[in-house]
Amino acid sequence: MLLFAHVGLALASARLLSHVSLAFLALGSMLPDIIDKPLGLIVFGSPSMGRIVAHTLLFLMLLSALSFYSRDIRLYSLTWGVLIHLSLDFMWNSPETLLWPLLGPFPSAPLQDTLSYLEMLLSGLKNPGVLIPEIAGLAYLIFLGYAGRRQASAWIDHHLKRPREKAVCILQALFRGM
After folding, report:
1. Per-residue model confidence as pLDDT tens digits over 51-98
2. Residues 33 and 81: beta-carbon distance below 8 Å
3. Structural domain tally of the chain?
4. Which end of the chain has less Cβ packing within 10 Å, N or C?
5. Domain of 162?
């Protein structure tokens, strides 16, 4: 999966939760790639080795334990985002990675330069199993942006326009008294 599916569908899943930090949920939905893609490039010399440590059940369990111990909504949200990411990546199809280190080392991946890797990712959009979640995630992000625009407008009206109008009235009253 690419950006829109991970972020959009994770944010859509927030409707199932009673309390959530949308920013940390979005971050969690991309966190395994944020950690593993550069790590794979640095350690293994290839961005295609981008499903390693943060794509494991061990990483998810550590985050879960940390969020459970801290009882912090931000960590709960981050953990939920990572769970969504691993689900959308169908990590159960890569048990060597998901269950690392129980089944041995991470499976090797072909060495590719970054441009070839990006071309391979984008060619995945020909697959309906990749394209449909990407479209669904993008659609939800557009919906969220539109709904957020209305909320932002209401917030601006309430917090910025009214106090400015009050300040103008106060200034006018002060100048009348002079």
Report:
1. 889 999 999 999 999 999 999 999 999 999 999 999 999 999 989 989
2. no
3. 1
4. C
5. 3-177
